[in-house]
Amino acid sequence: MKYINNWINGKEVKSNNGEYVEKYNPHTGMIMSYFANSTNIDVNQSVDIANSKFSEWKNFTPIKRGEYLNRLVELMRSNSLFCIRNWKNNE
Length: 91
Known about the structure:
The chain is α+β, with helices and mostly antiparallel strands.
């Protein structure tokens, strides 16, 4: 079974409390994976890091920002296809 942790500052990080929440397949009712049960500490840490990175981001040109965002979209699309294939194989 897949355990999905938080992604903070470019790294996979377990939640502060180490707990996970079940993700169910709505069609079958079976558990598909477990997600980190994030706490306020996790959220605050993530927000603090994001705020510290903003000074760098705001200095990028609009073209450079667009390049990063387009790459993010590519990664999200390829990952979503990967997740769909895995989900179908696990049915």
